[in-house]
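A student in our group prepared the protein record below, which I am reviewing. What it holds is a sequence and that sequence's fold in token form. My question to you is simply how this chain folds and whether the tokens agree. Do not assume that whoever made the record got everything right. I have pasted the whole thing underneath without changing anything:
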Amino acid sequence: MKNNPLLYILIALIIISCTKEEKKRIVEEWKLEYKNDTNGNKVFGNKEALISYVRKGNPIRIGWASRRRNDSTKTVEHIVDAEFITIANGDEVFAQIKPFLAQRPDLTSDTLSMTLMPSQSHWILSTNGLISTMSINYGKDTVSTSKPKPFRHDISWFTKKSNSSKKAKPLWD
């Protein structure tokens, strides 16, 4: 069997390709970038970095969690993609999330479950700790809205990192 240079080139290309895929997978991990409490105070991270990632067009996810007051072992955690993101006055981030059907958890049965409710919620969450809502109740055929009010949970803001080191400028520049 003779040494075939094409075979060596093919093996080298496969190795290089696998190495690039591994780097790409690492770069695209979601990372907690910022967390605010119910009053909009920083709990973790850097809000300016979050704003920079939003300006670069990086995907953003939002998460929050809650525990039952009378039994802290009963918990729920929610994570959702930000659908429509606004930076206001260069220092606050507002994110609409995709409308969702309300659900009622059963956290005490032997089999945990979620029951859908006939109400659809539309939310805007923000780094200043506020939530604005609109609810459509299909059972009662009603629509209700609320003025911005404090969200009852800390809000975690996740970014999908890119390898771009360019400085993010406001969109009007």
About this structure: The helical segments are 5-27, 47-55. The mean pLDDT is 90.
